[in-house]
Amino acid sequence: MNKISVFIVEDEPIVLEVNIGFLEKMDEFSLIGMSTSGKDALEKIKKLKPKLVLLDMFLPDISGLDVLVQLRTERIPSDIIMITAARDAGTIQEVMRLGAIDYLVKPFRFQRFQQSLQNYCKMVGKIESLQMLNQEDIDKWLGNSENGIDLPKGLNEFTMKQILLGLGSAEPPITAEQLGQNLGMARVTVRKYLDFLAGKDKVQIELQYGNVGRPTKYYSLK
């Protein structure tokens, strides 16, 4: 497989430098362009048609969300990983509905960046190696079977993906209540998904004991 072409949209010079440095550590990818504003990014992306765009949400002229909408409207064949400080559930849901393949919350570590791009690289390799995909392949591509997890009745794929994205973007470990606040979900709902993931050995639980009462559960991805 040829190197995957990447275009970075980021208006903060330090963050841009960090993202470029992260990308240069990954041999499967090649940076073909960058921009510090939304309108300039749209022009260059339409011309260069990168395979992958790392797109900041907050830009000086138009928002990254506006850029994403325009790219989708014009059917530009670029996949999007959104990079932003926005953590509200409404924004995350909107971005996911528009087809972003991942959502990285600033500040993030190289391990999370690497995980996101490696997963994308595997997906691209799988799709390019096959003319026809079976249901399992499609589920993995769409994120409908995270790490091979079959969801029981009462748990849905969309919420599970939000939980996993939120957990991966948070500073670990985190409580169900904290994650619920980040995602705009009820603590009880979040805990149900987290405990299910822990039972599947996808999430690690740490117990912290206070002076009184039950211990507090802290969750992190394995």
Automatic annotation (TrEMBL):
Gene3D superfamilies: 3.40.50.2300. The keyword Isomerase does not apply. Keywords: Activator, Cytoplasm, DNA-binding, Phosphoprotein, Transcription, Transcription regulation, Two-component regulatory system. The modification 4-aspartylphosphate is found at residue 56. The keyword Transcription regulation applies. It comes from the Bacteria. GO terms for cellular component: cytoplasm. Pfam families: HTH_64, Response_reg. Residues 5-121 form the Response regulatory domain. It is found in: Cytoplasm. One of its GO terms (molecular function) is DNA-binding transcription factor activity. This is Two-component system response regulator. It comes from Neobacillus mesonae.
